[in-house]
């Protein structure tokens, strides 16, 4: 099994994470479990084990966990941290991974941390581009260092997606500093594209344009840099007259590619940080979780389903004419309890001594 040492991993991810974060993943052996799309399990530093068939989660998840722990040279008791993917994803597959992670942590006493897959997807994409020197910052990446100065000044939005089935996608839009611009949600690809276009309109984007120059007046509010270390806000690109594109990454990105036709698309990648980025992908995912924990953000293992449940509480049956929600049966007939409290005001039929009479005119 492929192994990446802590020093090599820290070097590979240094543009995104501090070396102390990476070292912590090795000092406290960390198991990653995710069933947001198929199932992925692995110990940080080693290549993950991926199963694409979501129907086999229950049967294969536990054997796969045992396998990756053993192949990493560890025992279950050696695992000190479990990072589990919390979605967003459909209910059936997602809960299998979360339950397995909770059970493992409970049995071993390991720390349990939850991480959403979309933010990790965004971080991976930004790290990939940063490593290729395509981000623009006037300090870290001067134009003169690259033959293509336009590419060096390109600002990358990341639209992270995950297939939600039923012709829908889970999604969130991030700026290149890691800031969340469109909050995590679920919608059709067409509706997602429309929402992204509305955001880009603030930057002067016109439908049908490809890579677009940023409008300084519209860039306010999206310049906050992330603590992840990937620098450069939209405002800095606007001030420099750079262009921008939207990278779309995740399961479903290619499937609905036609929906992105009117966006200034950079890359469309049907890939996952967890099983397409190898051992580095596990480290990125786990590091994102630790970074969120350090920042005081939510790292619970509550599942992110986002879609409303199919099962709903049925509406109450319609009342029979003359009845309310509280009725009493007296002598074989239904008597309205609310009405019999005021017999003077109501003519309520009751059974008395085998005869039916009005409550207001009782027959002896």
UniProtKB/TrEMBL annotation:
GO terms classed as biological process: tRNA threonylcarbamoyladenosine modification
Polar residues bias (residue ranges): 336-353
Record InterPro entries: ATPase_NBD, Gcp-like_dom, T6A_TsaB
GO cellular component: cytosol
Pfam families: TsaD (PF00814)
Domain Gcp-like, chain residue ranges per copy: 54-128
Name the record gives this protein: Universal bacterial protein YeaZ
Organism this protein belongs to: Alloscardovia omnicolens F0580
